[in-house]
């Protein structure tokens, strides 16, 4: 006979003035404007799921937590609101980590709510807890990339912590915040109205008029000034102010990867992206500038040609003024004449006011020089736009996609040819329609982030352009798109391998060992179109170059998600700049 004692004490009946925390929490999410939570279930979060299911907040269930985090990231990028993720503990949280870190490195506001083991099992190492070196330490996994990690030890703290999470993820330099909730705390009673405090509206840090006059004077009197725009300009929705400043002082604009779209692609002052995959005209203008005003950028390695002064920036002698939301970004890689901690939109707005009626140095043939530089570079690839070669030229895929995609449609890239080629060669005319993973450059981002983008803007087209490596990293996105009824389009640039790295290895070592998809020494090909159809989605296998454009038009009009698989030559993206890794590789015997 069992000697185990059965519990005999009935749970205490809560007084009428209390309500279970999870239900109040779901209502709080509604109150702070959360429309959708992306996540994946587990025994630690079903209390919260029940509450979400009974709320107005939509829950999108993914098949992998990384997808949930990328989708929330995509949603946040196009709405400017925090993305919200719900994750189970242990393996759920570690699965989500890549997506959350990707959001962190691109300064995307996000709140991650994680279930955890029961608080009263502290130190007993319960099921699925991460605790090898410290009790109850799963939150530590998120420490290096979250702005703050909270473990909720007492139910009474939950409302305050949640308010802090929504405040912190959006304030200063945005980024993810983790709220780790032991599952018994979802079920705890809290006084009705416990979740009342909402994040304070924030006036963004701006620029004082005297400093603005100094900066404007410096730009006006410079011989060869450049404005260098980063993702901070787009995140702050400051593109109109940027254009106004550039036009007022006749200053050309170069940009980072995340800054693409900061000016209309046909704006006569637009130089283009800098760095390894940049445009020569942009690298040259920056390298020869006497003054650069950098706004909302961390002057990162890829866009700065690994900071080698021979390629993109030569600072000094170029003088640098740097405006950024994060003081830690100022002065890291270059001597900086003046650093300003401010929101890009606020600061550019004050600069535009200060620039009114200010006379600037003559700029000579600046606009003609830019046009010629851009034309000359395009001549390297524009003859491929109509190439009927099959497997297709990547440039043809880009040009067909540009023709088919409405100007306000979203293009969400992954990493590989898609990201590097689009940043360099794909015209973007509506700010915020180019979405890409920059800081962490996570393969698998694009196919998942497009889900959040489409969720936020169901009436606008949303295409994920992705390599076959990136697409097959997390192909269950198709199932999620079907379930959530998100008619997105994935265009898979299929070269049977991790093409970019295969090319890099081949260039330095003469083969592509470990980078190609092969079986028994022969190319291993996957029929992603058939896979899509098995999910109930549309799947189109392109058989000749001419089939792509009509397939794109049809897919964009379709009411169900579509995978278009376009076989592609593994041709490298031009690299006018420099990347230090190429100095490192050494082949031996
Ligand atoms: C998660 C992750 N693993 C590895 C890499 C390194 N990486 C950068 S590009 C690339 C190849 C991507 O292959 P594919 O998606 O097929 O695109 P392609 O390069 O062929 O255009 C890899 C593996 C990465 N960025 N992210």
Which properties best describe this structure?
6-stranded parallel beta sheet; 22 strands; 589 residues; binds thiamine diphosphate
Write up what this structure looks like.
The protein has 20 helices and 22 strands. It has 589 residues and is of the alpha/beta class. A six-stranded parallel beta sheet has the order 3-2-4-5-7-6, sandwiched between helices. It has a six-stranded parallel beta sheet with strand order 11-10-9-12-13-14, with helices on both faces. Helix 20 links the parallel strand 21 and strand 22. The N terminus is likely disordered. It binds thiamine diphosphate. Thiamine diphosphate binds next to helix 14, helix 16 and helix 18.
Categorize the overall geometry. globular
Number of strands: 22
Strand order of the largest sheet: 3-2-4-5-7-6
Overall pLDDT: 96
Largest sheet: 6 strands, parallel
CA-CA gap between termini: 71 Å
Task: Return Rg in Å.
Answer: 26 Å
Ions, cofactors and other ligands present here are: thiamine diphosphate
- Report the total helices: 20
Strand content: 15-25%
Brief write-up:
The protein contains 20 helices and 22 strands.
Q: Can you lay out the helices and strands and say which pair or pack?
A:
Blueprint: E1 18-20, H1 21-31, E2 36-39, H2 46-53, E3 58-61, H3 65-79, E4 83-87, H4 91-105, E5 110-116, E6 148-151, H5 158-170, E7 176-182, H6 183-186, E8 189-191, H7 209-221, E9 225-229, H8 231-235, H9 239-249, E10 253-255, E11 270-273, H10 280-287, E12 291-295, E13 319-324, E14 338-341, H11 344-355, H12 366-378, H13 394-404, E15 410-413, H14 417-425, E16 434-435, H15 445-456, E17 462-467, H16 468-473, H17 477-483, E18 489-494, H18 499-509, E19 518-519, E20 522-523, H19 528-534, E21 538-541, H20 548-557, E22 562-567
Helix pairs in contact: 1-2, 3-4, 3-15, 7-11, 9-11, 13-20
The structure holds thiamine diphosphate.
Thiamine diphosphate (TPP) is lined by residues 414-418, 441-444, 467-470, 493, 495, 498-501.
């Amino acid at each position: 006979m069992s000697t185990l004692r059965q519990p005999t004490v009935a749970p205490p009946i809560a007084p009428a003035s209390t309500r279970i925390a999870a239900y109040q929490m779901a209502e709080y999410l509604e109150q702070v404007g959360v429309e959708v939570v992306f996540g994946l279930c587990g025994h630690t979060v079903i209390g919260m799921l029940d509450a979400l299911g009974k709320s107005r907040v939509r829950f999108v269930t993914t098949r992998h937590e990384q997808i949930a985090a990328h989708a929330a990231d995509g949603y946040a990028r196009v709405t400017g609101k925090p993305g919200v993720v719900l994750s189970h503990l242990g393996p759920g949280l570690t699965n989500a980590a890549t997506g959350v870190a990707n959001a962190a490195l691109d300064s995307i506001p996000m709140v991650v709510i994680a279930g955890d083991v029961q608080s009263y099992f502290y130190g007993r190492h319960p099921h699925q807890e991460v605790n090898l070196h410290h009790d109850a330490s799963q939150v530590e996994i998120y420490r290096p990339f979250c702005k703050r990690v909270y473990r909720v030890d007492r139910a009474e703290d939950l409302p305050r912590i949640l308010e802090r999470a929504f405040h912190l993820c959006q304030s200063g330099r945005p980024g993810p915040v983790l709220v780790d909730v032991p599952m018994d705390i979802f079920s705890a009673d809290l006084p009705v109205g416990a979740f009342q405090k909402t994040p304070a509206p924030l006036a963004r840090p701006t620029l004082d008029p005297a400093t603005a006059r100094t900066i404007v004077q410096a730009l006006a009197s410079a011989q060869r000034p450049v404005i260098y725009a980063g993702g901070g300009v787009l995140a702050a929705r400051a593109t109109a102010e940027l254009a106004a400043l550039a036009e007022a002082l006749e200053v050309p604009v170069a940009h980072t990867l995340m800054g693409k779209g900061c000016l209309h692609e046909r704006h006569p002052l637009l130089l283009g992206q800098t760095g390894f995959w940049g445009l020569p005209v942009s690298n040259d203008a920056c390298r020869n500038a006497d003054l650069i005003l950098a706004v909302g950028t961390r002057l990162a390695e890829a866009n700065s040609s690994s900071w080698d002064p021979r390629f993109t920036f030569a600072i000094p002698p170029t003088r640098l003024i740097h405006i950024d939301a994060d003081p830690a970004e100022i002065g890291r890689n270059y001597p900086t004449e003046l650093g300003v901690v401010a929101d890009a939109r606020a600061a550019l707005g004050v600069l535009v006011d200060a620039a009114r009626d200010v006379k600037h140095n003559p700029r000579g043939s600046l606009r003609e020089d830019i046009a010629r530089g851009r034309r000359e570079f395009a001549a390297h690839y524009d003859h491929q736009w109509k190439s009927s070669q099959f497997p297709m030229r990547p440039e043809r895929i880009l040009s067909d996609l540009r023709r088919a995609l409405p100007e306000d449609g979203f293009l969400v890239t992954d990493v590989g040819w898609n990201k590097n080629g689009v940043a360099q060669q794909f015209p973007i005319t509506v700010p915020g329609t180019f979405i890409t993973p920059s800081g962490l450059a996570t393969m698998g981002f694009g196919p998942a982030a497009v889900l959040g983008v489409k969720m936020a803007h169901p009436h606008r087209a949303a295409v994920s352009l992705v390599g076959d490596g990136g697409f097959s990293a997390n192909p269950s996105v198709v199932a999620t798109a079907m379930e959530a009824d998100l008619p997105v389009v994935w265009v898979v640039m299929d070269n049977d391998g991790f093409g970019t790295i295969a090319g890099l290895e081949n260039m330095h070592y003469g083969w592509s060992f470990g980078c190609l998809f092969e079986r028994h020494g022969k190319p291993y090909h996957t029929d992603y179109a058939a896979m899509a159809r098995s999910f109930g989605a549309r799947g189109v296998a392109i058989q000749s170059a001419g089939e792509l454009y009509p397939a794109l038009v049809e897919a964009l009009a379709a009411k169900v998600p579509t995978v278009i698989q376009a076989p592609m030559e593994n041709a490298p993206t031009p690299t006018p700049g420099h990347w230090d890794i190429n100095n490192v590789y050494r082949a031996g015997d």
